[in-house]
Design a protein that fits this description.
elongated; Arc Repressor Mutant, subunit A; DNA-binding; mainly alpha; homodimer; 65% helix; 2 domains; 3 strands; 7 helices; 3-stranded antiparallel sheet
Chain lengths: 181, 181
DNA sequence: GTTGCATATGCACATTTGTGCATATAGGCT
DNA sequence: AGCCTATATGCACAAATGTGCATATGCAAC
């Protein structure tokens, strides 16, 4: 149920509707946490019955009415409490590693294509992260909040750089296999 | 349902029982895919009804009888077919990144402890991988099968090295925050 | 004028994964 | 005698997540 915490974390920023949360997820937390709007609405209802958030209906004309959710003190407590318990390391369940493990039972050309696609993706990601870094964090004094986000961003850059290097090496090894066999 | 493929991949090595698969998972695929024996037995049954594996009962005395599962030609086809479809990149749903994102709503000392624990873990892992590398792969001529596993191992080493560097930097940044605030 | 998009919320079903519990035998330890 | 461990398999329930479908309005584009 960590989606609950992801939502609470977003709501520390400001009160939001489910719709806005969906978009916020896309642009921020969504870098590492993808989900559809249905799950967010579902979770918001649960969080409300648990008292971690409050809902307030806002009547609009021209558009459907909306429900603005606010973090309650209980929600804040829950977040802080949650933060004291060590998180389980995420398991790296990557089918691609499975394919590598049984490389001789697998379509190697398809795998090469797949690695190429990943390489593209990771390069684009790294590029994006570096631009965000340059625009928002390079050489500025940092609040606690900003420092945390910078650490997250660096985490992302670290991952992408490693993955890029690995993809390049892996492609080389596949080529080498082709030449020797 | 990628657990199914994880099992099939293991069975390319040799026919095995659910019990042996459980142990095989611990020592090989388990580096990136943890699961309990119950799930393996459950999945084996499904794979059998789907015709991807065959079961053969072996009567033992002293121990309970066992069911040895063998990969069928249909199972081999299924593996190859699966390998041609690009795998979705695994989403990096790490609660720790969430904690970083809301660093000012979070218990920073607990987070520091958590990062320290991770650092320990990643160092131990890297050490283990490097020893496996030295023992099994360093400077040997490589079959297709071994090359694939080497690529997987390098993937692991890449990740651990990146994570170690990140943890060290992150701890430094947390200390810096403590000193300035 | 109708097609498509942005706004806005949600139900219901299915799949995947996790976990507690159950069972059975043999051998070794205390 | 009682308890733990290794071997060996599995059910049943719960939680988390994914996905197809449903609804309603207004505005812009074609």
């Amino acid at each position: 149920m960590a989606l609950a915490e992801a939502i609470l974390v977003c709501l520390t920023e400001q009160p939001m509707t489910g719709y806005e949360l969906t978009k916020a997820f896309d642009s921020t937390v969504g870098f590492f946490w993808r989900t559809g709007h249905q799950q967010i609405y579902r979770e918001l209802q649960r969080l409300k019955t648990e008292g971690a958030v409050d809902a307030r209906e806002v009547v609009q004309n021209g558009k459907p009415n909306k429900l603005v959710y606010t973090l309650t003190p209980a929600g804040r407590d829950r977040l802080r409490q949650w933060s004291t318990i060590p998180t389980e390391r995420p398991s790296a369940r990557d089918d691609m590693l499975l394919k590598l493990y049984a490389l001789d039972s697998v379509d190697k050309d398809a795998l090469r294509q797949e690695i190429l696609m990943r390489l593209d993706h990771h390069r684009a990601r790294l590029d994006l992260y570096e631009r965000i870094f340059g625009r928002r964090y390079a050489g500025k004094e940092t609040t606690t909040r900003e420092t945390g986000r910078l650490m997250g961003l660096k985490f992302g850059m670290m991952m992408e750089r490693g993955l890029i290097a690995w993809c390049e090496e892996a492609l080389g090894m596949l080529d080498q296999l082709d030449r020797t066999v």
